[in-house]
Design goal:
By secondary structure, the protein is of the alpha+beta class. A hairpin with a 2-residue loop joins strand 1 and strand 2. It contains 18 helices and 8 strands. The strands form 3 sheets. The protein has a 4-stranded mixed sheet. A two-stranded antiparallel ribbon has the order 4-5. A two-stranded antiparallel sheet has the order 7-8. Helix 10 packs across helix 13, helix 13 packs parallel to helix 17 and helix 15 packs across helix 17.
Length: 505
């Protein structure tokens, strides 16, 4: 080993050991939930799988009960494994459970400290959250785009059924791009593909244990030239920033040429808030909106399709209602005005959000900002908390027959409350700002897809619903056969949807 390597190793050993010792001494004076055995210094870092962490966390919940503690480097994580404790801590005590732990790699380097989802609970977060809330809760603004793009979705399924998963991604992305930038996305649009690539790079690196500096934030104090992880993070940052900047540059060019549609972007660039932002902050506002509006809808549509192929009994019940409202012989497509009569579709959407938490299988970490006590436990400030999404969704204590896709479970008094009955959008003050848009995106798309298409398993490639991948690298997450319900439904799509394929802006 050369002198530089020896120096780096010495610094790392010193900082890591110091950080671990401080964390160990601090935790020793508090009382934490059952601790999952690990190894000195690194704790449980090497036990958690890099991907599909839900099944791993569920097994621990089955063993330890409503809460357990893990150590990822110097960070102490408490997993909340029931809705009861999530409500008690992350909802009712949200004022002190809503910050974020430090992420020097994924937030600091890869996001230029500007990705709102990882910001601490502070004034900057509140300002950006207000901007996002204003645009993402204007449901009437989205409805015309969701109507148009869901018709394009049907056309894409009709013409290219083997590209159903790409069509889902295009649909979700095109809705948000229409609102934010006043432009549509095309099937297999290379810009959309690259956006999802940068999002998957972020999600890959956000997993606990992937980056040593996120497990031991003290290593961020190393001189930059000794931070061997930094060049990789900077490359991802530049790639991500390029994707975001490309959209803003297109927007500014069209504004200058006088042919840009009015949209969020045109208004946003003229606000006083923008005047005080750096380029990176401004671009990550755009980027966060693009990601928030694209990924949850895309993934949930795929989950519901998997549920339709593996548990077809509920599809028949959905069809009874769809046919009664829209016609047994493909008379017309479901519309927004049908929502009150299509209660079962609303239940399908809620079940899609609950069934297999796929984006955040172990929730999203928040940080306690001051010492707290709960049911005999004493938590130190700085403890990281997360809701164990997979364990809660698949717990028989929470849901009857939890592994089954069964929308009927949501046909209750809370049906019209999209956030009740599941944690897909998160708890407390960090609940996803785009939950209204996400729910509406999925509702109109799945109502029309179920009315027009059948989804069945490929006999030689059955769907394992417990291992549907989080990250797909622009490939299908599973195999499924997509077929038309009838020629009448094909004719309906051609009659009502062909025109939207010629609309460009």
């Amino acid at each position: 080993m050369n002198v530089t390597g020896t120096l780096i190793l010495g610094f790392v050993v010193f900082f890591v050991a110091q950080s671990w010792f401080r964390s160990f001494r601090k935790n020793a004076s508090y009382k934490l939930p059952p601790v999952v055995p690990g190894i000195p210094i690194f704790g449980n870092t090497f036990q958690i799988p890099a991907l599909q962490q839900g099944p791993w966390a569920k097994k621990l919940a089955d063993k330890y009960g409503e809460m357990f503690t893990c150590q990822f480097g110097s960070q102490t994580w408490v997993f909340l494994n029931s809705s009861r404790v999530v409500n008690d801590l992350m909802e009712r005590r949200a004022a002190i459970y809503s910050s974020r732990p430090p992420f020097p790699m994924t937030q600091g380097i890869m996001s230029g400290n500007s990705r709102i989802v990882l910001m601490p609970y502070n004034e900057e977060w509140r300002t950006l959250r207000k901007i996002m809330h204003q645009i993402l809760t204007s449901t009437k603004l989205y409805m015309p785009f969701e109507d148009l793009e869901s018709k394009q979705l049907l056309w894409d399924y009709l013409e290219k059924p083997d590209r159903w998963w790409s069509a889902n991604g295009r649909y979700a992305n095109s809705v948000i791009m229409s609102v934010i930038f006043g432009r549509r996305s095309l099937l297999d649009d290379p810009d959309v593909v690259e956006l999802f690539e940068t999002l998957e790079l972020f999600l890959e690196n956000q997993q606990p244990g992937v980056n040593i500096v996120d497990a031991f934030p003290v290593l961020d104090r190393l001189p930059k030239r000794l931070q061997w992880w930094r060049p990789r993070g900077e490359r991802i940052f530049e790639k991500t920033k390029k994707v975001y900047a490309r959209e803003e540059e297109r927007l500014r060019r069209k504004m200058k040429e006088g042919n840009q549609k009015e949209c969020f972007g045109t208004a946003f660039l003229q606000t006083k808030e923008v005047a005080g932002m750096s380029e990176t902050q401004r671009l990550f506002v755009f980027g966060t909106l693009m990601e928030a509006g694209s990924d949850t809808s895309r993934v949930t549509l795929g989950q519901i399709i998997a549920g339709a192929a593996t548990y077809p009994d509920w599809v028949e019940r959905a069809r009874v209602q769809l046919d009664a409202v829209c016609g047994h012989h493909a008379e017309r497509l479901p519309q927004w005005e049908d929502r009150d009569q299509l209660r079962y579709i609303t239940a399908v959407v809620k079940e899609g959000f609950r069934w297999r938490p796929n984006i955040a299988e172990i929730g999203a970490p928040t940080m306690l900002i001051k010492d707290d006590e709960y049911e005999g436990y004493r938590f130190p400030a700085g403890t990281v908390f997360t809701w164990n999404a997979w364990a809660i969704a698949l717990s028989p204590d929470e849901y009857e027959d939890p592994e089954r896709f069964w929308p009927d479970r949501f046909l209750n008094d809370d049906l019209a409350s999209p956030l009740k009955g599941h944690w897909a959008f998160g708890p407390g003050r960090r609940v996803c700002a785009g939950w209204k848009v996400g729910e509406m995106n999925v509702w109109i798309a799945i109502a029309r897809l179920l009315y027009c298409f059948d989804f069945t398993q490929v006999p030689e490639k059955p769907i394992d619903t417990m291992t549907i991948p989080q990250l797909t690298k622009h490939t299908a997450p599973f195999d499924v056969k997509v077929s038309l319900r009838s020629e009448a439904h094909a004719a309906l799509i051609r009659r009502d949807c062909e025109e939207v394929t010629r609309i460009q802006y």
